[in-house]
Write a structure and sequence with these properties.
It is a single chain. By secondary structure, this protein is mainly alpha-helical. Helix content is 76%, strand content 3%. It contains ten helices and three strands. A three-stranded mixed sheet has the order 2-1-3. Helix 2 (58-86) packs antiparallel against helix 3. The radius of gyration is 21 Å and the shape is globular.
Amino acid sequence: MAAGNSSSVTEFILAGLTDQPELQIPLFFLFLGFYMVTMVGNLGLITLIGLNSHLHTPMYLFLYNLSFIDFCYSSVITPKMLMSFVSKKNIISYAGCMTQLFFFLFFVVSESFILSAMAYDRYVAICNPLLYTVTMSPQACLLLLLGVYGMGFAGAMAHTACMVSLTFCANNVVNHYMCDILPLLERSCTSTHVNELVVFVVVGIDIGVPTVTIFVSYALILSSILRIRSTEGRSKAFSTCSSHMIAVSLFFGSGAFVYLKPSSLLPMNQGKVSSLFYTTVVPMLNPLIYSLRNKDVKIALKKTLSKSSFS
């Protein structure tokens, strides 16, 4: 595994969420339930948007991609986490660990930018409705999506390349349920100053830029809503945006809490609990938030169910 105190490690042992034996099985079933709801919810939303032509609009194109991202990054993390509840040693190879880290970061950064693209879409729809079809043309949507996944790739590459350059110690127990940046840095034998700087800069951009975009969009949306005379129009505009705001607050709040606080202020066990929100809870809640609060999705679901029962 490792010969000497600072030689290269070929595998890591993931400590998991808790070391209390009596909690392992209940937590296994709890998170298995979460994972199944996440899979069904996101795949259901992807299928629903794909099958219903009246949902082929920019708003639902972004929602389709959000569900795809949530489906993928939940699949990158949760199966390995479930293993830690039922196996004595949850071993992951060095290559497997770096692969999990890359794809986790790719999807989590992509999610932060797809949420800001959705905020921009809502801003155009409410503040400039007459120019909506021109502004959010298929070409513009494609460029936004390329930007979303491009930023995801750039963020994942920056962190993973810095991580690969480190030498890890013989003590290869990672105090987490997945290969995340901060717990891996704890296992390094070499200096991590560059990595910590990259974390602060890249995470600052990946949380800062979307947060500013979202806040500016919603400040403009709010001022536009307040100018709407009719109560019905105002409540319709509020309901369109409220589900998005719930998802955004959960995702960015938990992400900033884990990565943008000094490690001395946030013990790793507390960090593990916080990271559960954006790795497990948010991908599960997103399809529920967007579908249960959305009239178009409810209509599409009724149509699809009536079609399948009729056939």
